[in-house]
Structures are given as structure tokens and as C-alpha cells.
Inverse folding.
């Protein structure tokens, strides 16, 4: 009986000793890691053969006690048979050469260790003798769902990986991937739902990500350059593409038969022409597609290319808060579409702004800045067949578009609402436009947009105008349809109703714009205070967007591609006026919604193990029992050693 007790507590004490040794070198890790070095394996040979180590663990009884501490043998390439495996996990000192290629985090208990998510570290390509692609693919195949594959090397070539389980595939060092074959770097297959890919820089012939029949995919914080399509989604739902930089591509994002996709805060800036920024087709899901707050900026509007292309059956789409510039065509509708909302965008310096063909059903084009396009701002082309359902085209700001602001080449009549367009429309019936009420007190001016009956107007995009007083010109920024400016007493003197205001291309005297009033200083102070509050809100919103972009963008992104929230070209002083909302809730209904809860931003630390803990309750209990066992063991040994003396003392 005593012998059995000795064996039991000896085993407990040994387990504690092994656990303490494993923990001793890991104080700098946030997750508890269990490493096994070649030195901790007792064997007659000094050299451990990586090809037979699995069999050695199974067959030799003298190392059975290591089963709980060995997490995984990472060398699955099978290429090396006569050298010590550099893929066995080790806890070498920082000053020594690091030989381990994979670091796995421990979960709740040793018994469930292999079933829990792990963090797998991929070292630089120079660490591997065999095929790096096969090696990483085997790691992925053997990884537990939810594990993190973390690339730490600077560069890899010809990586083509297939993902069939949810994984976090990340790089926080701007890892560069160069491929020479027309094969996607990451092919996400059915079963790969929930996969996240972030932090990579690419120079490819094929696609970066090709995903089909999955959901919950997040692609963020990457710099993508390819000769084919950057990201391909086919049958993908409830996913996001955010904060990426696309610099070379045939199609940056090719989305088909998908829904619940949020495309946000990307910089799509092709170096060359003849390409498409976002291609949509067969979007029939009610979850739709949201294209939000992207910079989609090409480099030459004379070269064929389209920023956003609506293919067949591209329905349920929201396009909001984007800056689209220097494309041959900004937004193209070659086919009939249903339920599309285009709101609060800056569409400037393109060849054509928007081209519409086919039937348009439930279409909203509202609060957009359409300026400086070479040909037409909005064109209803020859194949335009008419409108159905709710059709709204109003509260937009058109100016300096080359031929016309709005043009209808189709056979169907078009009637639109109120817009700033100076009536530069051809075969487009536009309702009576807007007036501007002017107020003056000394050198201070306050302007507000009103309808023909003098009622205040809201819902217009922010824009800039030019005030001319006594031959001098001043830029006036309209925010939420109002503007304030103090030209200074010595700048040009008092104005009058004969002073002029140039809005877009419409230059009129105050009296021609509408009502002009001289007001006292007290009333003007109220207007000034009101406008300053709007200005503060605009500045605060701009800063928050800038901070969000810096947090969501990869640290290695070019500064020229992080250019902010989209300047329409109408700017002055310390603030740039664009089409973004100034106050929350001012933009009205979005019309279409999509899930944007994509989880942590690319720059935030991605959880490297979903269930990793520093020390679980079970481990702590086990450790206390082991220590107590050692104490009791010492007492028993002493008792056995002096057992005759103790027996005599007990008899006395």
C-alpha cells in the first residue's frame, strides 16, 4: 500500500516539475506556451531523426510521461532524415539561434491541447530547406479550426494555399508574397468560413484571395498588386473587405452571387488604366452590397476604365461616402438595376460621372458632388429604357462638367428633382432649383440655401462658392446648406446687394439670388455661433475618420494612398469641403444595409488563440496537489528510513 502511495505522489511531483520547467522561459508571452526542445527528450542517440520521432514517441515506454507536454511536431515535410529537426519546439535562449518554426499556445488543459486553437509561427523562408509551400499547407491542414497562422518573415515566393477551415492568417511585419503563376495565394474553400487575412504585401500574377461558398470572411490591411483580379468573392456572405490598398490589377474586387458584403475604407489607386475598381454582378441577395468611404482614384481619365461597374442583376447596392476621381467612367450601369442608392459621394474629374442604361427601378441619387467631369455629369444613354418604382435624383451639386451636367440620349423622358445645376440639362426635366438668401452686417456675411418660396433647404452636399465684394474674391464654404464669412473691415469694405456669389458656374448678384438683408450685429453673432458649431462638428468628424483610417490601415501603406476622406476640389483655408455628412443623422435613410461587424481592425492585435490562458483553474489545482504530494512523500520517506526507531518510540 505504501509503495502504491509513493508511486502516485512521485508521478504528481514529476508532472509539477515538468510544468514548472516549461513555464520558466515564457514570462514574456501573453499566452501560456508549452515547448519541447530536443534536450528534453531522453534517448540513446544525440541526433533525433525527424522522420521517426512520431514512432519513437509511440513505441518507447521510457518517454511516455512526455505525452502531455509535446504539443505538436512541426516538421511535416519529411525531407530531412539525418540531422536534428529544427522544427521540434524548443525554448532556447534569445541569444542562441532560434530553431523552432512553430509556436503553439496552450489551452484550458493538456488533455484538450491538440483540440484547441493554436498560434503557428511561420519563420522566414530562409529557415526551410524543403518546399515552403508544401510545408505551410501541411501546417494549415493539421491546424485546429480557429488557429492563427502568423507569418514573420520578410518575403516568400510562390505561395499557393488552400483554406478549408476558419483560420486567422496574418502578418504584422508587412510580409511580401511574390508569385509567378496565375494561381490565387489564398483559395478559401467551403468550410473556410470565418477566415481572416491581413497585413500582407503582394506582387502577383494571380489573385490574392479567391473565396467561394463561404461566409464571415475578413480581408483587411493588405497592399495588393497583381496582373489579374485582386480579390474574388463568389457566393460569399456576411463578409468584409476593408482598409486595403490596391495599386495594380485587372479588377480590384470582383463580387458575384454574394450578399452582406461591406467594402469600406479601401484605397483603389491603379498605376495603369484599362481596369475596373469594383465589379458587381448577380447581386440578388436582399443583404446587398455596401460600398462605403473608399478612395477610388485612377490616374488618367482618357484611358478606358471604370471605378464601379454594375453588371447584370446587380441589385440592392449602397454606394455612400466615396471619392471617385480620374476614371474614364466613374459609375457605369450598362444593364437594368434594382434598388440602388448612390448618396453623399464626390464624383469629380472623370470622363463621365455616371452612365445609366436599361430599366432603373427604385433608384436614388442624392446629395452627391458631381464636378469637373470632362463630358457629362449624369448621362442617360441610348439604351436607357425608363424608370420604375421610386426614382429620386435631387439635392446634388453639379458644376464645371464639360458638356452638360445632365443629358438624356434615350427615348424615354426623365424628370428629376431640385439640384444645383444651372439648368445645364439636355432633355432632362428638372424642377425649379434653389435660391440663396444673403445677410450682411458690416464685414460679416451669412448665406443660406432656400427654395423658391424662401424655405430653408437641408440635405445638400457641402460645397464651396466664391464671394466677390468690391472686386475682391473670397471662398465661402457651405456646410449643411449654410455659410458664414468675415472678410475683415480692411479687406474690401462693405458689400451691397450688387456684390456677387458664384456657386459652381452660376454667378449672380445677391439681389438675383434672392432675398438680401442687412442685419444688426447681435443677429449676426447668432449666425456666426451656429456656423462655428457646424464647423467644429465637421472638423471633429474629419479627425475621427483620419484616426480610424490610420488604425485600420497597414503600417507599411504608402502615405500617398492614405490621402483622407476625399477632396472634391472645392476647398479653402483650413478645411476641405466634400460630400461627407457633417452631423449624425443628416444624410437620411441609406436604403440598403449590410453587415459591417468585421471584428478587430487589422492593426489591432488579433487574438492568437481563442481559448488560451496563462494558467487554468485545473492546472492550479493540479499544481497544489502535486506540491502537497511532494511534502507528504518526504515525510513518508523519513518515516520509512527511521521506521524501527519510530516503532520503538510508539511501543514506549
Amino acid at each position: 500500500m505504501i509503495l502504491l502511495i509513493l508511486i502516485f505522489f512521485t508521478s504528481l511531483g514529476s508532472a509539477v516539475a515538468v510544468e514548472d520547467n516549461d513555464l520558466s522561459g515564457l514570462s514574456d508571452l501573453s499566452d501560456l506556451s508549452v515547448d519541447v526542445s530536443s534536450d528534453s527528450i531522453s534517448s540513446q542517440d544525440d541526433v533525433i531523426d525527424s522522420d521517426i520521432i512520431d514512432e519513437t514517441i509511440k513505441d518507447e515506454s521510457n518517454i511516455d510521461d512526455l505525452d502531455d507536454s509535446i504539443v505538436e511536431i512541426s516538421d511535416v515535410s519529411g525531407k530531412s532524415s539525418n540531422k536534428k529537426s529544427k522544427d521540434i519546439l524548443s525554448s532556447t535562449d534569445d541569444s542562441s539561434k532560434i530553431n523552432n518554426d512553430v509556436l503553439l499556445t496552450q489551452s484550458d488543459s493538456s488533455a484538450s491541447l491538440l483540440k484547441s486553437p493554436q498560434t503557428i509561427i511561420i519563420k522566414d523562408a530562409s529557415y526551410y530547406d524543403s518546399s515552403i509551400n508544401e510545408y505551410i499547407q501541411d501546417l494549415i491542414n493539421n491546424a485546429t479550426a480557429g488557429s492563427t497562422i502568423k507569418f514573420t518573415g520578410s518575403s516568400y515566393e510562390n505561395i499557393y494555399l488552400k483554406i478549408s477551415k476558419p483560420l486567422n492568417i496574418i502578418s504584422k511585419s508587412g510580409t511580401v508574397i511574390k508569385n509567378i503563376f496565375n494561381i490565387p495565394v489564398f483559395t478559401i474553400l467551403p468550410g473556410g468560413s470565418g477566415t481572416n487575412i491581413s497585413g500582407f504585401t503582394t506582387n502577383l500574377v494571380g489573385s490574392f484571395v479567391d473565396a467561394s461558398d463561404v461566409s464571415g470572411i475578413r480581408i483587411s490591411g493588405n497592399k495588393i498588386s497583381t496582373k489579374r483580379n485582386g480579390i474574388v468573392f463568389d457566393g460569399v456572405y456576411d463578409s468584409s473587405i476593408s482598409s486595403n490598398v490596391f495599386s495594380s490589377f485587372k479588377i480590384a474586387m470582383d463580387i458575384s452571387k454574394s450578399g452582406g458584403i461591406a467594402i469600406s475604407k479601401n484605397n483603389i489607386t491603379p498605376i495603369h488604366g484599362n481596369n475596373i475598381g469594383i465589379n458587381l454582378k448577380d447581386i440578388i441577395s436582399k443583404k446587398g452590397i455596401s460600398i462605403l468611404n473608399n478612395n477610388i482614384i485612377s490616374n488618367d481619365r482618357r484611358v478606358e476604365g471604370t471605378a464601379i461597374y454594375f453588371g447584370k442583376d446587380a441589385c440592392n447596392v449602397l454606394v455612400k461616402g466615396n471619392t471617385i476621381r480620374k476614371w474614364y467612367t466613374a459609375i457605369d450601369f450598362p444593364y437594368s438595376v434594382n434598388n440602388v442608392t448612390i448618396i453623399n459621394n464626390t464624383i469629380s474629374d472623370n470622363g463621365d460621372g455616371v452612365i445609366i442604361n436599361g430599366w432603373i427601378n427604385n433608384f436614388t441619387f442624392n446629395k452627391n458632388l458631381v464636378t469637373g467631369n470632362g463630358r457629362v455629369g449624369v448621362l442617360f444613354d441610348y439604351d436607357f429604357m425608363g424608370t420604375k418604382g421610386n426614382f429620386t435624383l435631387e439635392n446634388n451639386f453639379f458644376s464645371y462638367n464639360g458638356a452638360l451636367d445632365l443629358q438624356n440620349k434615350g427615348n424615354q423622358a426623365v424628370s428629376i428633382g431640385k439640384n444645383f445645376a444651372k439648368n445645364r440639362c439636355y432633355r432632362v426635366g428638372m424642377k425649379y432649383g434653389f435660391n440663396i438668401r444673403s445677410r450682411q452686417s458690416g464685414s460679416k456675411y451669412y448665406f443660406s440655401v432656400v427654395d423658391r418660396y424662401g424655405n430653408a433647404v437641408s440635405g445638400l452636399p457641402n460645397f464651396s462658392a466664391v464671394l466677390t465684394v468690391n472686386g475682391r474674391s473670397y471662398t465661402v464654404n457651405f456646410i449643411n446648406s449654410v455659410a458664414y464669412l468675415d472678410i475683415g473691415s480692411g479687406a474690401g469694405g462693405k458689400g451691397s446687394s450688387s456684390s456677387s456669389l458664384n456657386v459652381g458656374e452660376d454667378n449672380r448678384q445677391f439681389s438675383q439670388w434672392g432675398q438680401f438683408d442687412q442685419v444688426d450685429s447681435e443677429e449676426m453673432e447668432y449666425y456666426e455661433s451656429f456656423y462655428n458649431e457646424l464647423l467644429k462638428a465637421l472638423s471633429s468628424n474629419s479627425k475621427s475618420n483620419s484616426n480610424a483610417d490610420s488604425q485600420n490601415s497597414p503600417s507599411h501603406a504608402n502615405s500617398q494612398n492614405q490621402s483622407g476622406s476625399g477632396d472634391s476640389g472645392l476647398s479653402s483655408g483650413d478645411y476641405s469641403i466634400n460630400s461627407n455628412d457633417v452631423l449624425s443623422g443628416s444624410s437620411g435613410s441609406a436604403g440598403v444595409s449590410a453587415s459591417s461587424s468585421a471584428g478587430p481592425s487589422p492593426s489591432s492585435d488579433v487574438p492568437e488563440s481563442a481559448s488560451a490562458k496563462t494558467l487554468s483553474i485545473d492546472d492550479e489545482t493540479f499544481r497544489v496537489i502535486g506540491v502537497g504530494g511532494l511534502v507528504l512523500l518526504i515525510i513518508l520517506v523519513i518515516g520509512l528510513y527511521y521506521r524501527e526507531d519510530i516503532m520503538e518510540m510508539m511501543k514506549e
Residues 99 and 231 are 35 Å apart (CA to CA). Residues 12-113, 551-625 have pLDDT under 50 and may be disordered.
